[in-house]
Amino acid sequence: MKTSREIKTAFLVIGGIALFIYGFSFLKGTSLFERDKTIYTIYNEVEGLVPGAKVTINGLSVGKISEIDFLPNSTRILITMKIRDELIFSTSSTALLYETGLIGGMAVAIKPVFDNENKIISGDTLASEVKPGLTELINRQIEPLQAKISSMLSSADSLFIGVSNVLDNNTQLNLKSTLQNLSNTTQNLNEASSSLIKILDDNQNYINTTFNNFSDTSANLKSITDSISEANISLTMRELNETVRGLNLIVSSIENGKGTLGKIVNDESLYESLMDASDELESLLSDLKNHPKRYINLSIFGKKEKPYISEENNQ
User: Which of 281, 288, 277, 275 is nearest to 311 (CA)?
Assistant: First the structure.
């Protein structure tokens, strides 16, 4: 029995419609042949999250995002998720929105909490949580650096403004003049250095002779100091000590009244006798000076000698 063309066309249209429905369901993240649970979560912002994004538990894909829309009468975002029906975890679990990569978009990871009393069922809503993405973390790190750079740029602008205010026309002219003088000074130093080098070259022989003489003088001084150091200084010091010890003994003997000099120094009666003798000698010399005729009597005709009369009797 031959199949008519109309029946073939009908089968082809029905197959196309079924294939379209299956593809559409696949793209929306739903399955026509598998049973699943529908759960919800709410976020304030879901930039980068699209329908069909995967839902994971511990990195394993367990479902997909089926719908994203506004929560009625609110600007918050309601996320509808289709997950495998056999998964059992508590309604205390959390739906974490995270960034899958720099260009991988966003996804939702369920952080399961296992509580047999509050098992999740289709239609439940999980608490939401957002994990900072790499871009946001980089922005957080860059913000303080950006603030510091802005502050540095502001300080640099202030510095340049201050320098511009200080470096007016007169200051610039003075600075140019100073730099010119510095250049002239450097040139003069170079010329002086060249002259000095020429003088040293011209007098190299004299300089060498001077240093040789200085070396000979140093050798002679070293020889003299070696001779002095080799001298028997210890013997000289020992003899000096013996001499000082002898002088100490002599002085000690004089202080103790020993010997003639000691008796003269320490005998007061001898001192008084010497003083009396000195007084009498002084009186004698004075009388001899005042009355020389008493002591020198020259008589040609034999005159009689006059008796001596002391000055005390004359008084």
Answer: 288
Q: Using CA of residue 237, residue 239, residue 240, residue 241, what is the dihedral sign?
A: positive
156 in a structural domain? no
User: 63 and 29 in contact (C-beta within 8 Å)?
Assistant: yes
Q: How far apart are CA 34 and CA 31, in angstroms?
A: 6
Tokens of 102: 């720099």
Does residue 180 fall inside a structural domain? no
Residues 6+ apart with CB under 8 A from 110: 55, 56, 57, 62, 83, 89, 93, 94, 95, 96, 126
Contact assessment for residue 106 and residue 100, using Cβ atoms and an 8 Å cutoff: yes
- pLDDT tens digit string along 253-305? 777 777 666 666 666 777 777 787 888 888 888 877 787 767 666 554 455 55
> Residues 106-137: pLDDT tens digits?
899 999 998 777 888 999 999 999 988 666 66
**Rounded CA gap, 17 and 145, in Å?**
58
Question: What is the spatial distance between Cα 206 and Cα 212, in angstroms, rounded to a whole number?
Answer: 10
Task: Give the number of domains in the chain.
Answer: 2
Backbone φ, ψ for residue 115 (5° rounding): -140, 110
Nearest to 67 by CA among 37, 33, 95, 29: 29
User: What pTM did the predictor assign?
Assistant: 0.39
Q: Which domain holds residue 68?
A: 34-131
